[in-house]
Each structure stands twice: as C-alpha cells, then as structure tokens.
From TrEMBL, chain A:
It comes from the Bacteria. Transmembrane segments: none annotated. This is Cbb3-type cytochrome c oxidase subunit II. It comes from Pseudodonghicola flavimaris. InterPro entries: Cyt_c-like_dom (IPR009056), Cyt_c-like_dom_sf (IPR036909), Cyt_c_oxidase_monohaem-su/FixO (IPR003468). Keywords: Heme, Iron, Metal-binding. It holds the Pfam family FixO. Residues 44-184 form the Cytochrome c domain.
UniProtKB/TrEMBL annotation, chain B:
Residues 67-157, 209-292, 303-393 form the Cytochrome c domain. SUPFAM superfamilies: Cytochrome c. The keyword Amino-acid biosynthesis does not apply. Pfam families: Cytochrom_C. Its cofactor is heme c. Gene3D superfamilies: Cytochrome c-like domain. InterPro entries: Cyt_c-like_dom, Cyt_c-like_dom_sf, Cyt_C_IC, Cytochrome_c_Oxidase_Subunit. This is C-type cytochrome. It comes from the Bacteria. PANTHER family: BLL4483 PROTEIN, CBB3-TYPE CYTOCHROME C OXIDASE SUBUNIT FIXP. Keywords: Electron transport, Heme, Iron, Metal-binding, Respiratory chain, Transport.
Length: 206, 412
C-alpha cells in the first residue's frame, strides 16, 4: 500500500460523482418545475387520512403511479394519465408503492368519487367484489343500535349487515375516505413535466 | 524504485515487491471503445432533439385550434359532414339539410351565430319540421375558424359570397355570452326576419321525475349508493365511470335489467341494480335521457385520433369492422333503443368496454354485434376510436326532458 493518496482521491471522486448525478442533478432538475395550479395541498382531515393510509400499510398492495400507455393499459382501466413528478409535490413520503395486488390509487378520487362506496368497500370489500382479496377494516367502524344525528351510516346489503343496528363510520374511516377522494391527478400534465415516457419517445422517433 | 532482480542475483531480496510495467492496450479494444463512443454520441444527438412529446400530448394538440385556420371545406368535412352529410343533404327526419335550406341563404352571420350558440328546439327547414338539436361549437373553434366555416357554408349552400370576418365573429361571440342555445327556429326567425314561419317553441315537454327517483339519484338508499355519487351530479361520468346523460331511456333500462339478472357483469352496478324496482328503472332512464350536458370527456388515452376518425366514419373492412356511425347514428348521437350514444363518452370507459367485449367479459350486445367488432380491433385501435369519440361534442338531449333536484355533491 504505497499509493494511498491516489486511492483515497479516486474513492472520493466516485462518491462525489455519484452524489452529483444521483442526488444533486435530479434535485436541480425537479426544483425547476412548478407546482401544478390545480393540485391542492392536503387539508387537515385529508392529512389525517393519509396517516391512516400509511399506518394501515395500503402501500404494500396499492401503487400510486399510473404508467404510460406503452407499458400498461392503465388509461383504459380508468387509473389516469401517466404520473409526473409534480403530482407528488405534497406527498412526503410518497406512497408510490411497487406492488399491484390491488389497483393503482393515484386517481381513485376521480374514478370512484362516491364516499358511500368507499365506506362500504372499506368495511367489507366482499360486499361488492365477491372475489376481492383486500382485508376488511371493520375496526374503522362501529355498530350502533341506531344512527345518531351527524353519523354516517354505511350502505350494506343484507348479507353483510349486522343482525341488529347500523354500521357507522368512525372518524378514522371518514378521514381515510377523505384522503382517498382527494387522490385526483386528472388535470392535464404541465407541458414541461418530468414524466414516465415509456417507450413512446423511441417509437415516435422524436 | 525497487531493485530489479537479475539472473546473477541468486539471493532473493526479502523486501522485493513484485511489480509490472503498464502493458499496451490491445489495439482491437481501442477500436471497440472508439466505436462505442461514436455510437453513443450519435444516439445522444439523434434522440435528444427538442423537448420530447408523448403521444397523449400530441393527440391533445391535434385537437387544439391552430393559429392558421383550416379552410372552410376541410372544417366542414371534419366536423359537420358526419351529421349534415358531405353534400349537405342531412338525414331524413333526423338532421336538417343545408342544401335547399333557407338558413344559409340568410348569410354567413346567421350561420356563425348558430355555430356559436347551437339550437335546442323545433325548427322548420325546407318545409319539414325537425327536432332541432345542434351542439354549440363555440368552445371547439376559434373566431377565425368559425368565420371560415360560416363563410363556406353560406357560399356553398346559400349562394351568399359576402363572407364574414374574424372581427364580426368575435363581436357575435361576445354578444352570445350567457344567451344559451337558440330555442328552435322561432328564436332565429325573430332575429332574422327573412326566414319562413317557424314552429312555436314549447318548454312544456319537461316532465319532472318523481321524488323517489330524485332521492335515489342524489341521496341513495339504505342499500344503494346515490347514482350521482359516482356518475356525477349531471350524469357526466369520469374515467371509466360512464357518461349517462343523453343515453336513451330504453338503453339505460336494458342495461340496469341486465345488471340485475347478471347478463352484464359489473360488481358495482350489480350491487346497485338488485335493489331497483321497475318504476325506479323507468324513472332513471327518463331522467338521464333528458339531460343535456356539455362534454367533460377528452382524448386522454394517447390514441391516434386520425385512425379513430377513420374507424368511426368508414370502419375498416380488412378487419371486418363497420363504421361506428353506421349503427350508432351520425356523429355517434345514438339510435334508440339498441344503439347507445357514443359521442362525448369518457374514453377509458369506451376502451374498457371494447376490451370487455373482445375478451368475453361483456356479452349483452344484441346479436353479439359488438363482440365480433371488438375482436377485430387491436388495442391501439380501441384506444384510437375511444379517444376520437371522446373528442366529439355531447349528444343533444332527447325530446322528453326531465328535471330533478340537484344534490349538494360535487360540481362538474
């Protein structure tokens, strides 16, 4: 080991280069892009719902990143246009996810805008989709003998309704639903947006 | 510098450290490296030209009015001929003719006015009465395009060569703000005295929906979600939730019954439909058939709009696919009871239904017509035709209007 200095310099150089290309350059690239005017920050309730989303581990089965038409038929599925970096500006940490055991949720608020539907589905997914593998979340709800004023009663078919009383959404369920309904990135992507190009660029030859 | 061992040096130096002089790089490796560098630079230069543009954006831009307007003839062929026919003869009993009509003969200003505001009401053209439903093109065209188109229509079908300029159209547009559509020929005749007598406009055709059905649409029931909570307050739909307004009552009723019996499979709608009575179904059909709502759909799937237009207008007989409009009516306005309106339908919904027919997940088309057609279409074709249909103006309301109380839900 008689060339300690060149070795140290080289190691430092590699680290510096990696930091420049993987951290600083993307940071500069993203910082140049403005926030889409149609994208609203989360309200307090939506932020609480987001914490529920994170806490319940929804990200393990649901992605939040619709892909380009060249990679998957996400558009036909109603999952929305390919996501761009600016869509996640208020998401820290982002909930991109890698698994698609369930559908993509980045535009679920546009696709399924019904609060009543969301509550039924959270209480018992099998009430709607007999084949669903999504866990039920009954602990976000409570069974009351009768609904009190201000209560949100869950719409349920007879087979899934309790024998007596009604199912009422707890605050946690309402928060989570508010967050899900806020997931709507259907506004047009800004012209200068950083996006998932898929193979479109190569195929169109531009 | 370490001492070099020599042949005469029999005693090996214990401090000796082996080393090697830098050998020369083999020449072929240099050639390969140079070739790769040239290829890489070339690829970088050829693929990084300007801002990359996705197919989606390109499709949206095609639809946008450009600064230099197309000629009137091209605009007519692309936008008017699907209903009024290329020779302006119209469709008997459904779409008034332009050839032989008194209206273009009144001059290009009237034509521009109709293009800007649309018509909703009875109209008498060349001695025949029509249920006039012309969509407004004010959002689709700029002033220059309306001027080109109006001048062309007046010159071709009304022998009026005086033309109209962009400034006049801008003035007409400013005056049309907040005016809504022309209520039939009567309103036009009041503004343009040269027109022949027109049938009287009556707004009495509005039939209110029952309180039960209104509650079902906007509030839901114990075991049914509100229709409007997914399909929107005006039945405009979103993503793969379909637009309902303007579909014929019979078509809506048939689909609801098919959901009830399981002939058409959709988990959400089966959940909803099983709780509906026949009276509910009839009321819902009448309500949505009578709604006239501007299009909220857009070509968002990145499909090829030109290809979609070809499929809709002439089909592709190499694939065994007839023109959409040959059954679904001019401009996809729908032909009751079996052929639903296609224009302004949400593109993801249209594309997903075509895929469902092709894959056998939807099988309630009369005579299995759509099954065969969908199988002939490739994924790109389905996307193209769905995008093209989403770019068309909304279907005009049916003649039996209905009014329900609007809920407190979301706006458009």
């Amino acid at each position: 080991m008689n060339r300690y200095l060149p070795l140290a310099l080289l190691a430092f150089g590699i680290l510096a280069f990696a930091t420049l290309m993987l951290v600083i350059a993307p940071g500069v690239q993203i910082a140049r892009h403005s926030v889409p005017p149609q994208l609203e920050p989360y309200t307090e309730q939506q932020a609480r719902g987001r914490a529920q989303y994170v806490g319940l581990g929804c990200v393990y089965c649901h992605s939040q990143q619709p892909r380009s038409p060249d990679q998957a038929p996400d558009g036909e599925r109603g999952w929305g246009r390919p996501a761009v970096a600016a869509d996640y500006v208020y998401d820290q940490p982002h909930q991109l996810g890698t698994m698609r055991t369930g559908p993509d949720l980045l535009n679920v608020g546009a696709r399924l805008p019904s609060e009543a539907w969301q509550l039924t589905h959270l209480y018992q997914p099998r009430a709607i989709f007999g084949w669903s593998v999504m866990p039920a979340y009954p602990f976000l709800f409570e069974i009351k003998p009768a609904a009190e004023p201000g209560d949100t009663v869950v719409v349920l078919p007879e087979a899934f309704a309790p024998e007596a009383g009604v199912v009422v959404a707890r605050q946690e369920a309402l928060d989570l639903t508010a967050y899900l309904l806020s997931l709507d990135r259907t506004y047009p992507a800004p012209a200068d947006a950083l996006r998932d190009e898929g193979y479109a660029t190569m195929e169109s030859g531009s | 510098m370490t001492r070099k061992p020599t042949s005469s040096d029999h005693i090996v130096d214990e401090k000796f450290e082996p080393w090697e002089r830098n050998g020369r790089m083999p020449l072929p490796v240099v050639w390969v490296a140079v070739a790769l560098a040239i290829w890489g630079t070339g690829t970088l230069l050829t693929t990084s030209g300007g801002a990359p543009e996705t197919a989606v954006e390109a499709a949206v831009q095609q639809d946008r009015p450009v600064d230099a307007p197309d000629s009137g003839a091209a605009l007519f062929a692309a936008n008017c001929a699907t209903c009024h026919q290329p020779n302006g003869s119209g469709v008997r009993l459904a779409v008034p003719p332009l050839r032989g009509s008194e209206f273009p003969a009144q001059g290009p200003e009237l034509v521009a006015n109709v293009l800007l505001r649309g018509i909703d009401g009875p109209i008498r053209v060349d001695g025949h009465d029509y249920d006039g439903h012309m969509p407004s093109f004010s959002a689709a065209f700029g002033d220059a395009e309306i001027a080109e188109l109006a001048s062309y229509v007046a010159a071709t079908f009304g022998d009026r060569d005086d033309g109209v300029d962009t400034a006049t159209v801008a003035d007409l547009r400013a005056r049309a703000v907040g005016q809504g559509t022309w209520s039939g020929g009567e309103a036009l005749a009041a503004a343009y005295p040269g027109l022949p007598p027109q049938p009287a406009f009556s707004s009495a055709s509005v039939t209110p929906v029952s309180a039960d059905v209104s509650a079902l649409i906007f509030e839901g029931r114990d075991d049914v979600w509100a229709c409007a909570s997914c399909h929107g307050d005006l039945g405009q739909g979103v993503e793969n939730t379909p637009r309902l307004s303007g579909l014929s009552a019979d078509y809506i009723a048939k689909q609801l019954r098919d959901f009830q019996t399981g002939t058409r499979a959709n988990e959400h709608m089966s959940f909803v439909a099983k709780g509906l009575t026949e009276a509910d179904i009839a009321g819902l059909g009448a309500y949505y058939a009578g709604l006239s709502v501007p299009s909220t759909a857009a070509p968002i799937l990145g499909g090829d709009l030109k290809r979609g237009e070809t499929l809709a207008l002439v089909g592709d007989w190499d694939l065994g696919v007839p023109a959409c409009f040959s059954c679904h009516g001019p401009s996809g306005f729908g032909v009751a009871p079996n052929f639903p309106a296609l224009s302004a339908q949400q593109a993801p919904y249209t594309a997903s239904q075509l895929a469902a027919w092709a894959g056998g997940h939807r099988a309630n088309s009369p005579l299995s017509l759509m099954d065969q057609i969908s199988k002939g279409l490739s994924t790109d074709d389905r996307r193209a035709v769905a995008d093209y249909l989403a770019s068309l103006p909304a279907v005009p309301a049916g003649s039996t209007g209905a009014v329900a109380k609007e809920g407190d839900g979301h706006d458009l």
